[in-house]
Structure formats: structure tokens, C-alpha cells
Amino acid sequence: RSSRRFEPNRTIPNAVLKDVLESTMTAPSGFNLQPTHILLLRNPTLKHNLAQNAMLGFGNIQRLHDSAAVAVFLSDLTPHKRLDRILELETNHGARTGNYLASLPIATTVLLGEGTMATWMKQTATEALSAVQPMPTIDSVEAWSFKNAGLMAQTLVLAAVSHGIGTCVMEGYDVRRARRILRIPERYGVPLMVVMGYDYEEGRGEEVKRTPRLEEREVVFGDVFGEALDWGEEEEDDGGESSSSGKMPADTPDKTVI
CA torsion sign, 177 to 182 to 186 to 187? Predict the structure, then answer.
């Protein structure tokens, strides 16, 4: 869950932060291009400046003030510039085949066309060819890079929680102002920040009211969109292992879609 308040003036040990970051850096990314950077903000003056001049809403301002650290996620909007470094890493590591390494520049060029016109042309071409054979989905480079940042951010949240650290993922801020305060180059988007600290309510034994969640049937479908997920009863095969009934989904979806 997201932490609403943090214990002010309580720091996170460096050893804990290092372990959280090490885990975070294992997050997967498309083509292993690793297009995400983390700016770890701990300086009290910079935090105050960011909180007062870039954050939107009292809650975000207060959380940033009281947090022990802020992970600002930066998405590379020109990921092709990383390719030489990634190829060097992959070649030296030796886990990839020669064919993979040879095809990587071509694949990334096709799928990561930068610029509105390049993206539109590739989207138009793949849309037409999809009727004939499977084709990739062409996202804008911003959408692709932001998706990768989301994977990394969730990994950081899980790593932090494993150490008893509270977190809150935030997108309520003025990117332009944050960019100026933190000296972030235009090359990078700023899709989200994760504030970290020790939970205020739990530290005082207070009851923490959790926000409501949709029911499983409203979120999770079985096999095809809108089909209710039927756990059924598992049947044991001759080898003593359980297996599902293997029923085909109904033609008419269950009315579970919001």
C-alpha cells in the first residue's frame, strides 16, 4: 500500500538503500537497453525546494518533506544512444548468441523509431501487415521508455517494503519545475517519483485504513476478455498431478466488465 505519512527526521541506513537499489537494478527492460536512471534525492535543501516549488497538492508536499529519500525515475527518450554501451556489455558478458547481437541494432531501430513521423509510419505499416502475419506493436518512444521505468519503480517498491520501508509512488508534480530544480537534461522524461521513509501510523501502532479495491471478478478475466475466471475443481491426472478442466470459454462474456 502507499504510505500517507512518514516519520520526519528519520533516515534510512545507507546499507539498506544500497540493497534496495541493487535489487531495483535487476528489473527487466526491453532489449535489455535499461533506459531508466534513478536520481536518489536525500539533500534536505533540495527536497524542500522540490516540495515547495514543484509538487502538486498538500499531501504530496508533506510526504516529500517528511520522506527520508526520494527516487526520481528518469526515462531516456533517445534510447538508441545507449545501444553501443549495451552491445559492449552483452558482448563481454557472453550470454547472448552472435545472431542475437547482430540483429539487436536492427530490431531496436524498427521498434524504437523516435519522432512523431517515424512512429506514425511504422504504426501504419505494422497495422496493415498485421492482417497477414503477426507484427509488433509500435509505441511512441516515450510510452516505451515510461513502461520500462514502471517496471523498475515497482521493483524498488517491493525491495523497500522487504526492509520495512514505506513508499508512495507519485506523479503529482510539475515536470518542468522538477527538471530545473534537479538539473535534469531534456533527453530524459520524468514519469514518476517514489518517496521512501518509515511509516508514521504503523510506527505509532495506529490503525491503518486501507483504500478499497475492486473485486477480483471486476479486474481478472479467464482466458478471454470479459469471461469470468472459473477456478473450478482441479482434477488429478494418472500421474497424480492436478490439471484444470480445459473447458473452452463461452461465446458470450460474463458481465464483469466495469
Answer: negative
DSSP state of 137: -
What kind and span of H or E run contains 121? helix 116-129
Q: Residue 173, class by beta-carbon neighbours within 10 Å (0-12 exposed, 13-18 middle, 19+ buried)?
A: buried
Q: Concatenated DSSP letters for 4-56?
A: S-B-TT-PPPHHHHHHHHHHHTT---GGG---EEEEEE--HHHHHHHHHHTB-
Give CA–CA dist 95/81, Å, rounded: 22
Q: What is the pLDDT of residues 158-184, one digit of tens each?
A: 999 999 999 999 999 999 999 999 999
* β pairing state of 188-197 and 166-170: antiparallel
Instruction: Give residue 170's identity as a one-letter amino acid code.
Output: M
pLDDT in tens, 10-32: 999 999 999 999 999 999 999 89
12: cell is 534510512
Q: Give the span between the Cα atoms of 152 and 159, in whole angstroms.
A: 11
Task: Give pTM, 2 decimals.
Answer: 0.83
Q: Give counts: helices (H), strands (E), the chain.
A: 10, 6
- Please give the Cα distance from 130 to 90 (Å, whole number): 31
Contact 3, 168 (CB under 8 A): yes
User: Measured between alpha carbons, how far is 126 from 129 in angstroms, rounded to an integer?
Assistant: 5
Dihedral pair phi/psi, residue 168, rounded to 5°: -150, 120
